[in-house]
Amino acid sequence: MPIDPQRIGFRPLTTADLPLLAQWLETPHWRRWWGEPETELAQIRDMVEGRDTTEPYLFTLDGRDTGYIQLWRVADNRTPDLVADHPWLAELPAEAVGVDLSIGREEDLSRGIGTAALAAFVAQLRARGHQRIVIDPDADNGRACRAYEKAGFRPLAHLAGRTGGALIMEHVDSTQEIRP
Length: 180
Description:
The chain is α+β, with helices and mostly antiparallel strands and 180 residues long. The protein has helices at residues 18-25, 28-31, 37-48, 80-85, 113-127, 142-150, and strands spanning 8-12, 55-61, 64-73, 97-103, 133-135, 153-155, 169-171. The chain has a seven-stranded mixed sheet with strand order 1-2-3-4-5-7-6. Helix 1 (18-25) packs antiparallel against helix 3. The longest helix has 15 residues, at 113-127. The termini are far apart.
């Protein structure tokens, strides 16, 4: 039975949460898809301290810290270095926002939590006026790709085969169709 997205809560990540993130970054299911824990934690600290425009959050299930989610802006990530490494960024609309999500504990994987958290987060983003919402999982991360599809994301066909190992997906609701 799917998890009701109303059981999911969000709170901005603070420096007090960094030790929890450090623990999660060291676990095998994070190490497989994320970079070096020290590097990732430094980037997240930059977000918390305002040196990066990405918005980091913890999400909760029934009040328990359950995972990490962040919101990034395509326009802010079109630097020459990032576009050189990820040319597909230049093909997304500047007003689009991206989302990244990870479940904290391995025992919480494959329980529908990621799908529920993403659905709840997307609803908040839509309420804030965001129309173009993308996510870029590793194409080999089948668990994540399936969860994102269940939350309403669909692959952007015009980018297929041109994004390295990433699968670029866009959220589609009943009033929106995928556009290049």
